Amino acid sequence: MTFAIREINKRSDLLPKLRLGFHIRDSCDEVPVSLKASLLLVNGQPGHAAIGNVSLEAVGEHHGKGDLISLGSRSPVLGCADVTRSPSPVIIGDASSGVSMALLRSLGPFQIPLVSYFASCSCLSEQTEFPMFMRTMPSDAFQVSALARLVSHFGWTWVGVIGEESDYARFAVQLFLQESSLYGVCAAYVHHYPVVLSQQPLDKLLDIIQGSSSKVILNFCSESEVQSIMGAIRQRNITGIQWIASEAWATAKSLWTEFGDLLSGTLGFGIRRAEVIPGLKQHLSRLRPSNIQDSAFLTELWEETLNCRLNGSVNTHSHMVNHLDRKPCSGMEDLNDVYSAFSDVSQLRVSYNVYKAVYLVAHALQRMSDCEAGQGPFVNGSCGNPQSLEPWQLFHYMKNTKFSILGEKVDFDRNGDPIASYDLINWRRDQDGSLRLLKVGFYDASLSPELSLMVNESAIQWPVGQQAVRSVCSESCPSGKRVARRKGKPACCFDCVTCSEGEVSNKTAFGISFALCISCLLAKTLVVLMAFRATLPGSGVMKWFGPNQQRASVLLFTVVQGSICLIWLLTYPPFTNSNTGYLRNTIIIECATGSEVGFWCVLGYIGLLACLCFFMAFLAHLIVSSAALFTDCAFIGEEETNSFYQDGDVVLGGVFPLHYTRVSSLPTYTSKPEPGSHKYFSARALRWMQTMTFAIREINQRSDLLPELRLGFHIRDSCDDVPVSLKASLLLVNGQPGPPATGNGSLALVGEISGKGDLISLGSRSPVLGCADVTRSPSPVIIGDASSGVSMALLRSLGPFQIPLVSYFASCSCLSEQTEFPMFMRTMPSDAFQVRALARLVSHFGWTWVGVIGQESDYARFAIQLFLQESSLYGVCAAYVHHYPLVLSQQPLDKLLDIIQESSSKVILNFCGESEVQSIMRAIRQRNITGIQWIAGEAWATSKSLWEEFGDLLSGTLGFGIRRAEVIPGLKQHLSRLRPSNIQDSAFLTELWEETFNCRLNGSVNTHSHMVNHLDRKPCSGMEDLNDVYSAFSDVSQLRVSYNVYKAVYLVAHALQRMSDCEAGQGPFVNGSCGNPQSLEPWQLFHYMKNTKFSILGEKVDFDLNGDPIASYDLMNWRRELDGSLRLLKVGFYDASLSPELSLVVNASAIQWPVGQQAVRSVCSESCPPGRRVARRKGKPVCCFDCVTCAEGEVSNNTAFGISFALCISCLLAKTLVVLMAFRATLPGSGVMKWFGPNQQRASVLLCTVVQGLICIIWLLTYPPFTNSNTGYLRNTIIIECATGSEIGFWCVLGYIGLLACLCFFMAFLAPVP
Fold this sequence. Notes:
The chain has 32 helices and 47 strands. By secondary structure, the chain is α/β, with parallel strands linked by helices.
């Protein structure tokens, strides 16, 4: 990257009037580190701060050691006013797809472009989610197509597919399975392993590999994971594997030294290579100790490569050996004398991508420079100015840039992806044992499918032998036999059965039936078009498009196709053909088309009808239908006007989903992208916000809690959306700018508790709100967010800065992973507890056949996975498991409802949020699906707002709600005191008022509208009162999430109190220090929070090692009252602190059911009646079985078992005694063995068996076994079992067997003793 920039700066034909610079940092392939580095890049890095006469400076040529903060007195502080390194308007990076996604979600709100050189996940092509992304690395969608073609080319139809647990691998594996199935390739297994491979997941992976017959394995991962897997494979001595490498490790030479014997013969696609980048070799090899000592990066390279330590070294890293223990460098070392991946320019693949990325930005800047004023792509024909650059303007030029470099034409599609071209690489062992990465073919996505893959098989070195391995599930059928698919197995696994004679497939009927379908669509579309045209009263045009005319047109269109097919069949009909060119060593009997003209006429006619249909539909549709300068430190992005704020000694941050469900739109970048809008307003979330302000004001009035400290709050809307929540959180932890001076006046923030700050003029770009204008104090802790997915994004973003997050509603069990989320706590129980409760609940009511659905989110995925594991312990089976997208369009809704209707299950468990339930219920109403017993995930178990529209569908719903506070004293009065006079300065409260009363306040500051335009509302009369209407805002009957918010505030307060009470010298930190609440370090506060216990409203609040509270749930039943209103009735509870048998309590008599007076039946198979027994259905869940007649006259006889077992052991005992005597009778002429001949042996066996027979006879005569009906094992199931009768008789039988066994063992032990 530095070479490319210096090369451009020397050119006279590219950016002659502009000088490029660079700011490059280490991302460590880790989200927190990469995010911190990126924020330094886009904000600029501070230089030095003065301390008296001393200055502290950042060290390093391209690596700053800045951001110095004294942890004690908190001075000197390097702030935004000290920025000396210019902010970057574009970032080239990162290498990893997962890290790149995290950066894009973080930088997205600020329209900062990201150009990756190695991130290949196809998910990054989604422009609605990642609109500011481009890359010089081809998308995995192309790589996967190449890999599918490759395995098909060699006839490998049985392939193992593995990959790391990452977005990159998950998407790639999913795409490969779809693409390869088109070529008849099947996955022998699909397995994802964790990124950090400990012994347990390695053993599991290798068990799968060894247990499979597949000899070909495709591995989507990076170099480090391959090292771990190969190490384990060597230990197990697994050989003969044909490895297929994903591009992430297809050219990783460093693997060869240790694993060359295992990886020889590997095939993989490497990204396009530059034969040479002129001058790069010299640029890399010019390093000398004299010119690298100021750079920690280059010093580390030198010391690692040559294993010595430079004098005055600034390197602080060591790998494998302590860097301080290295010998001093002599000064005679030279990189040209040793091999180093740094100076190896034989495989310039990723380096070439970096080179192209730099030139992409340069050419975009050149296009901006060449633009003439008045003819530009932006507002009023403006062009943008490279000297005062707006990132989104630069990105517009980048998206439309094409250029040539080193003889290659570089172009991008509309997703920002380059056209893919790969080299097929073979890992060859040369005669000296070294690795040679030999190009043995290529894949070019720009060519037609039949020409896209070229392979030189003769040049390939295979892992074993001189030809490709065979990897198929079933061998091809010989002549005279045909394929018979194995039920429940992949298509590649089959049996060969004898062919039937005289049968040929006729496909002409397909053309006729397809024409019939499209003709129906065409007729209906024509009717719709005419209906829109016939708008005049009395118009008679529709009489020509009635039912009879529609049928006649369908018949006419279909007859034409029938005539074409008839002519085809009469002239040159289709015939059977033996195809040997599709798969190696396989003859495929196929139907040849016969007349090509006839075939294309059939297809052409279908296409003509389809085009007419589309054209008619199109006609019908037509009828109805700025920021601050980057060279300054400044807050960038749109003006943020709405928040609740109150200053204090410690200001607690809060993020709440006041709005939700984003309206999707794709920006064009010809004008500055507008902030996203959201469909719905949540009065419930506003109550949570106000609960936080209430709790803080309550604490400030107390004399026993923080008497010398005043708490404040800064609360913002997260919109349940990662970019919005992240932007809000950054404002909380950085502080928000206030009013800058403008001439003699000032621009003031408006509102008592609603800041209207972040003012930025979009015209002259002044006034500018910078970091020096911060008037709102930074928050050392954030209470939020509600969603698990959003909370995870915030934790990954704020993690590098040790900012604690306390969630009140995020329940995903994944958040309990402290190694990944060490700064997280919550007052919401983990889903691990909820899932146990739900599994116990469905088992309690005998629902063994349950539909399980959930949204595509981490929360739902983890919850469903845990539920399936937990419920299986209770004999519960999933009728189906289905994930649907967060934004539910008609297609995924139809798919979901088809699954529900096709299943016999009457119980559905739904893990999602309130808005998804709304969409699903509307679709269910349209299809008139009734009689469903809904089980609610806790996210919507108490969502009263669903009742008004869907009460008829949701009556009888059951779900676990988090623990409720009966009352929070004073909260009701706090919420109901709102009046128009005291809310008009707050956009949040104004919106509540206008949405509740459907009117508009005079001088309203609300700019949102939902369902109806807010400007069209009638004026408010001033007589409205929240006490006169129902509102989720003022409803305090179900204080569950509000109670969690309340506890979260008190958790922070009690932690601050513990810090205040700490005595100097006895604290938990260095030198016994305690931390100072007046100058708070977030990580110090978090230490106290993790160890805080307190009582509130009669409840003891405690947290485990993961920061999770002990779980307690109320079982809620949705009941319809006589007036039609909803009553959320508590009908039981689940308490995780109790023993398993006592943890769930249900009052079934209090439950109102969806249908009738009792619980629905939801089983796959009904229990077998008397006289019948269970027969499992092969390949089906254990809950699905048939009932077959019991065999007559047969009773399980324990007694016969005892006699037969005694007979067996008696035989062993006799033989063992003979062996023992044979060893003892060693003297010549000894006659002892005559007492142990065959007759004596038989007699001893008979004697021992008769004893057991006598015991059994006595047992049967006194108190024999009998049949017993057991109802205690499973609910609603009677198990007929054999009871023992006499316990003494039973144990005598078993005891005698044990005695014989012990004698046998004793004799066998004596035998080898001399």
